Amino acid sequence: MTISICNKNGYLYGIYTYHDELGCKRQKWFATGLKERGNRKEAKRITEDLAIQFERERQNPLRKYERRVKPDAVDKKQAAMPFSAYCKKYVEEQKERLSPSVYAVYKHYIVVFKEFFDKRKLRLLDVTDKDLKEFYAERRKQGIKNTTLKHYNSILRPALRKAYKEKLIPDNPFEFLEPIGKDRVNISFYDKNEMQKFFEAIKGHPLEVPFALAAYYGFRRSEVLGLRWSAVDFEHKLISINHKILVVEKEVYLSDTLKTKTSNRTLPLIAPVEELLLRHKAKIEENKAFYGNTYDMRYADYVCVMENGKIVYPDHMSKKFQDLLKE
């Protein structure tokens, strides 16, 4: 402890010299209240006591900071888990609140994490912002767009935040990352003549109805295939989107929860679509009569069904659309 005494206006002051948390030399002045003559020894004793008190007050916030940076109680078993395993654990904990499609995508992301982080033998407590940056860089080299990289963050960000909150890691490396920018997307669309060619090409196609609905209204795949007759109001000329069909790992999910809050919408039933739907409805009745007891009545309220009443899978629609474009 470095203490010195000086005289200022006839009174003694103690000066305590110390180094702050950054290693810079600082001085703290204390008024002893003593006059100069014959009191230097007592002034030094008073200054030492005040310096000790000052150090206690200064160290308290420093210790608090150290406790945050270097947690006292760490669950070593979890902290030493492979990073991909911890991410998988986080996803499984969130499974109940995730839609089946999102859960399936997250499982795929875990495989991606495993391939990168396990190869480097990185545990939860090992991962740094440098590792995360290298992960993104490698994925970009493989042609992955920023949009997908942002989707990875839907696991990485909350999982690391949770680990830091539970004191499994000394800091949250995700907080040191730069935001991922948006991809530049060149949107192309069909002009009037191309649309006319498209409508001509789909006439009589088994999937003419879903193709036409997507072309006229811009509905998503899951929305087109989830359209039900109960959502088509022929009397008031309205068509409502309030349901969807998803197929995840060969399992069919029927859901009233759409992608966004504004996805539930009601639009005018335009004349060409109304005419197409009425013809399609009549055709379905013919198919029911033809197939008899083998017709699948589980999806009787669905507009877009196969000849035997079974639903159309989204991937099947996409494949047939690509085949149609090639033809």
Cα gyration radius (Å):
34 Å
Mean pLDDT: 88
DSSP strand count: 8
Which spans of ≥5 residues are poorly predicted at pLDDT below 50? none
The side-by-side strand order for the widest beta sheet comes to 1-2-3
Percent helix range: 40-55%
**How far apart are the termini?**
88 Å
The structure class reads alpha+beta
Biggest sheet, open or closed, and with what strands and sense? 3 strands, antiparallel
3D shape: elongated
Q: Report the β-strand fraction as a percent range.
A: 5-15%
Element-level helix/strand string = EEEHHHHHHHHHEEEEEHH
Instruction: Work out the helix count.
Output: 11
Report on the structure:
By secondary structure, the chain is an alpha+beta fold. It has eleven helices and eight strands. The protein has helices spanning 40-69, 76-79, 83-94, 100-118, 129-141, 146-165, 192-202, 208-217, 221-225, 271-291, 314-326; strands at residues 2-8, 11-19, 25-35, 232-233, 238-241, 244-248, 251-255, 265-268. Strands 1-2-3 form a three-stranded antiparallel sheet, with helices on one face. A three-stranded antiparallel sheet has the order 4-5-8, with no helix packed on it. Strand 1 (2-8) and strand 2 (11-19) form a beta hairpin. Helix 3 runs antiparallel to helix 4 (100-118), helix 3 (83-94) crosses helix 6 and helix 8 packs antiparallel against helix 10.
